[in-house]
């Protein structure tokens, strides 16, 4: 029997609401604000149909990872599937993402979210 259940991914960031809003729009998931978070700086997004969620924790003195260099190592990243890479790219740029200069593959594209975390749009 499992000791725990319902794992979630938590991203540190300088503005929890802004980053939750970005990913909520990207995935078309509901943004949930939590006034009772550790410091009132906790937000999540959720897909009510599947129960999946991502959490965002606002931290002081946040420093984004540097990728692909490792001066400030990337600790995780999110891959999401899109039907069309060009359409997906246009949409995430409008949401506030930045396309990374280094693009190591042809079936995916690397972007930085508004807090500087790398994420990939994958042809799927």
From TrEMBL:
<feature type="domain" description="Glyoxalase-like">
    <location>
        <begin position="9"/>
        <end position="122"/>
    </location>
</feature>
<protein>
    <submittedName>
        <fullName>VOC family protein</fullName>
    </submittedName>
</protein>
<dbReference type="InterPro" id="IPR041581">
    <property type="entry name" value="Glyoxalase_6"/>
</dbReference>
<dbReference type="Pfam" id="PF18029">
    <property type="entry name" value="Glyoxalase_6"/>
</dbReference>
<dbReference type="InterPro" id="IPR029068">
    <property type="entry name" value="Glyas_Bleomycin-R_OHBP_Dase"/>
</dbReference>
